[in-house]
Write a structure and sequence with these properties.
alpha/beta, 8-stranded mixed beta sheet, 2 domains, Rossmann fold, two-stranded antiparallel ribbon, 10 helices, 23% strand, 41% helix
Length: 271
């Protein structure tokens, strides 16, 4: 049996959408460029396929097929374009979540973002608003982007949690800031490492449910940094037995994702 899902990544050109996709997946999925010309000038689809083995011989395996849509910059989109693109994607398979990217100082029209959020929330699609390249442009511009995100999301739900630099708005949305790749300013002697990706992934993991959560776990299965760094949070979230985890670490200590995901699937079946 095959279950198909969609993840939509939106934002203006050159804000790091493709770089973020690669950071989330833990491997190169989308083409990136360091030039001023966007490499994603048309809607592109990257498909990830993962197989979930049945819990026993009597249970058949399930294949999860996740399509990640890397959209062109939406600065030229009209409201009709937003509805048209999202309707097409939603009809193709089950929408998993929408990730919107804006970097400090980037061009963004709030009315377009509002159309996207409104379309998603009305269609029960989880929204993650991400300030990418968080150190590029300074803290004032970064905070301006985050304040705009908060203003928009608060129209749909009050903020319910502010944890690990991630703000949650019920079960409908979150916003945060990330640094997907190393940021370096030689003139000022500044060097910042990758930051905020694991917290973003964990935030979406906490927010999705049932099959959407399962598909999300298989989307990020190759991101070993996430599974290792956020292991304790995942174990607590899904009430996984600590002795089982310790035994695995002592005997194996590798490929934490392939160990934890089957346990998460069992936890989902018990809900």
């Amino acid at each position: 049996m095959t279950k198909q899902f969609n993840i939509v990544v939106c934002g203006s050109a050159r804000v790091g959408k493709s770089t973020l996709v690669n950071a989330l997946c833990g491997r190169e999925v989308a083409q990136t460029s360091s030039s001023l010309c966007s490499v994603s000038d048309e809607m592109k689809k990257y498909v990830l396929n993962q197989v979930c083995q049945g819990s026993n011989q009597a249970t058949s395996s399930t294949e999860y097929s996740i399509a990640i849509w890397d959209t062109p910059g939406i600065e030229s989109w009209t409201e009709d374009h937003v509805r048209k693109h999202f309707t097409k994607i939603m009809l193709e398979s089950t929408p998993l979540c929408m990730i919107y990217c804006a970097s400090p100082g980037s061009f963004a029209r709030l009315d377009q973002l509002e159309w996207v959020i409104d379309t998603c929330i009305r269609s029960n699609i989880f929204c993650a608003l991400v300030c990418t390249n968080k150190y590029n442009g300074g803290s004032q511009r970064r905070n301006h982007v985050l304040d705009e995100f908060d203003l928009l999301l608060s129209r749909y739900h009050t903020m319910t949690l502010d944890e690990a630099n991630v703000k949650y708005y019920g079960g409908v949305a979150l916003c945060t800031s990330v640094n997907s790749i190393i940021f370096e300013d030689i003139d000022f002697g500044i060097r910042k490492h990758v930051e905020g990706i694991n917290e973003l992934l964990f935030g979406i993991t906490k927010s999705l449910k049932d099959d959407k959560l399962a598909a999300w776990c298989y989307t990020i299965i190759d991101n070993q940094s996430f599974w290792l760094t956020m292991r304790d949070g995942i174990v607590e979230l899904f009430k996984i037995s600590q002795p089982i985890v310790k035994e695995f670490l002592q005997n194996e200590g590798k490929d934490m994702a392939k160990f934890l995901i089957p346990l998460i699937m069992r936890a989902l079946l018990k809900r």
